[in-house]
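2024-03-11 09:14:02 INFO queue: dequeued item SF4 helicase domain-containing protein, len=681
2024-03-11 09:14:02 INFO validating residues
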Amino acid sequence: MPLLSRRLFMGSSKHLFSPKCPLPQASLINPRRLLHFTCQRRLFPNPLTGFFLRPPATAHVFRSVKPVMLSRQVHLAQVEDEVVQDSLALVRLKLEEEGIPSAGMKLDEFTRILCPQCEGGDSKEKSLSVLIRESGAVWSCFRAKCGWKGHINMHGEGKHYRSNNLVSKVKKYRVLSEQALGLKPLCNELLTYFSERMISGETLRRNAVLQHINYDQIVIAFTYRRDGKLINCKYRDITKKMWQEKDTEKIFYGVDDIKDASDIIIVEGEIDKLSMEEAGFRNCVSVPCGAPSVVSEKALPSEEEDTSYQYLWSSKKYLEKASRIILATDADAPGQALAEELARRLGRERCWRVTWPMKNENDVCKDANEVLMYFGPEALKNVIENAELYPIRGLFNFSDYFHEIDAYYRCHGYELGVSTGWEALNNLYRVAPGELTIITGVPNSGKSEWIDAMMCNINEREGWKFVLCSMENKVQEHARKLLEKHIKKPFFKARYAETVERMSELELEEGKQWLYETFHLIRCENDSLPSINWVLELAKAAVLRHGVRGLVIDPYNELDHQRPPNQTETEYVSQILTRIKRFAQHHSCHVWFVAHPRQLQQWSGGPPNMYDISGSAHFINKCDNGIVVHRNRDPKLGPLDRVQICVRKVRNKVIGCIGEAYLSYDRATGEFKDIEDQHAT
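2024-03-11 09:14:37 INFO prediction written
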């Protein structure tokens, strides 16, 4: 065998190769790699071509051989590829036998499919994860009620594999009996205990309340039954320590009493359930496990994962029939947290809640049994009959706002708005908290100056504080304008001051203190532009930290408008104005928003319209108030210091109406003053 002696020698079969059958030519294989051939009527050397073909049924086959590696490389890659493909085919066949469809699954990639054992539950979730490899496959169902797992390992010819299936995680519960638990009828001591809590012997007998001996101590045994069968038992000793039987199903206490009930009452303890029966309500159940300390912030889990509230889901068929569910949990914080958790699962729209009465001047009754003990069964009956709808976030009744309506009627706040400081505007426009005012006007009309003057007037009269987001003003220039209006003197001795005396250093120091106490600034510390969300977040901080009552955003076109490509400018403007209005209403803060008009064609010199604002008609459609500030530029039409304030929209008739007023502008001090004869203008 000269050919084989130069390449490799393989033992264990004299039928493997012959000198007339050279090794197949393919890509090189590292000689140190252990070759493992598997042939089951599949691979057979063809003496003509040198490739391996399927042999006839009578052909000699071999099982497994391990080569004695020499120094030369061997060309056997094609043989190995075909072996791998046949192994994968066998793995897929075995998966099909397990009921797992493998079509479309890729090698070494996880695939999620419908579990053949649980079929995805009610949600039909693709919960079975399958991984196929050359050596076999593994799978696992991630549904808590299923948990089916298994794997396939290929050996030798593939005739042998093992499958380790863990089918279904159905928990097995203990079967209980009164005899096995040693339960006995209540003794006179316990009957007296319940009598002191206003629970009668008849109610105790109907609910099968028994006793149990625990380490020579008599304890109360509350028997949990379903269809009359004992499912669980909960014990209570004289120190109010409570425990339950292990490995038992958690169900409602008294679940048989709500099978056909249209109204269901849920309480937090077994004695509260018995108290409800004393008041005439048998359609009552108690939770088995007490209350959580706080409401969970996590999303509501699925029915299978909601292990703490399985007693709800096990009674689903009864609860679904009920049109009204009254939550009569304890008055403390855990009791209210339990009510919220129950309402989340049952649906707030059909839940009601009770209001426990005061048992003295300072304390409220904690639960149903305290009401029964302090005020009797009739009072407890009234509590249930006067239950209120469980609140749903975002859904209210006018009664929820009666206190605000009363305050509005009595004008305890700024319901009628505050004066701008100019008599000419008092009947047209007053400033009310929680509203949005859009200010517009052609460039150099005095929009920002007029807002500054109005803020100075409101601060002087009402003591309001303001937060300013004025991107067009340098800080020192804005401070100069505000100080001139407040001190009523020019900041500099310059040409614009004419003969008016400049403010002194003492007046400057007093003015700086006024600036410190009255205004807060929103400024970008780098070259980026502020977004509306960023501005509103800082304004919110100013409201909460400093108690500001007014926000100025000046102007709209200086904001960073990150508009999505699929959103029109009209939609974008509507969105940001909605955000600003919600901020104003939620924080009772008035917002002045300056927006420039678009370039006016064939402008005649008159004031622009609110619909001329660049961007969208939503500026006037969505605002509460719309004002145009316009300065006269033609000496033929009147004094050049005359400023026209055009009130173009007022949503709330209580604070103003549409109209126009005229003010004069003092260039030296930046003040706006009333003109005595408005008609003369």
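2024-03-11 09:14:37 INFO annotate: Confidence is low (pLDDT under 50) at residues 1-77, 156-169.
2024-03-11 09:14:38 INFO item closed
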